[in-house]
Amino acid sequence: MAEFIIVFREVLEGALIAGILYTFLKKSNQQSLIIRLWQGVGTAIVLSIIGSILFQQFAGGFKGQAGKVFEGVVMIVASIVLGTMILWMAKNSNIAEDLKSKASQSITGSNAGWGIFTLAFISVFREGVETILFLYGVLMQKGSLSIISSIIGVFLALGLTYMIFVQGTKVPLKKFFNLSSIALIFVAGGMMAYGVHELESAGLIKDFGRLWNVNPPKLPDGSYPLLHDKGYIGGLFKGLFGYNGDPSAIELMAWLVTVSGLGYMWKTISKKSA
User: Fold this and answer.
1) Under 8 Å CB-to-CB from 200, ≥6 apart: which residues?
2) Mapping DSSP to helix (H, G, I), strand (E, B) and coil, where does residue 169 land?
3) pLDDT category, 159, cuts 50, 70, 90?
């Protein structure tokens, strides 16, 4: 489920950026620059895919304690970046006007084609890098990724973009972003808690013991209890909220501080920018 939320959100943001720039250039009668726009978008997508492959190869080179430290640091960084993105989106609710302003500046210069290419590339590539980082965080937490959920997220995001820019349908994007932001706050909390967990396992953070443990062995039939990390309920909560059946005090504190802190800041910023 976390994969769906992340992919849906990031693809939707990238597609909206491309759609806004395309609409602006078309209305400005800048047909020649539209090619540059799609070149920038295409280049960003290709480099994001290449970056994902290289990142996986790089991450796979860490084993043992070094692997735990690497995963812990990456998870904490992913949590911070995700939180920053959530707050940035809450503050900058009128992205369309900002993009149009930047595009207007780009087409007035002597290198208009390069300006539009760069604007499209940087905007979409940023979404690609964030997607790689966040999905890697989910992979570390769950041990696997749901390809089906990710694909559904992609098609739903592209479908909404098509409805907005091609069919002219009014879609409550603010409500979509608000709901996804709330869900992503919990995802960020889970990433932070798991990052702390890995650093505890590596010995960089002192482990004061487990608060509780609802991760007993498998049941006689080979299944897991409902609240086990791999049980039906526990597994769902782990994917969504970073749930752990045997958390440490510091791990739980990291989760609570991240979720409550992000939630408070997001609510405050959203009210000011409304």
Assistant:
1) 206, 207, 248, 250, 251
2) coil
3) very high
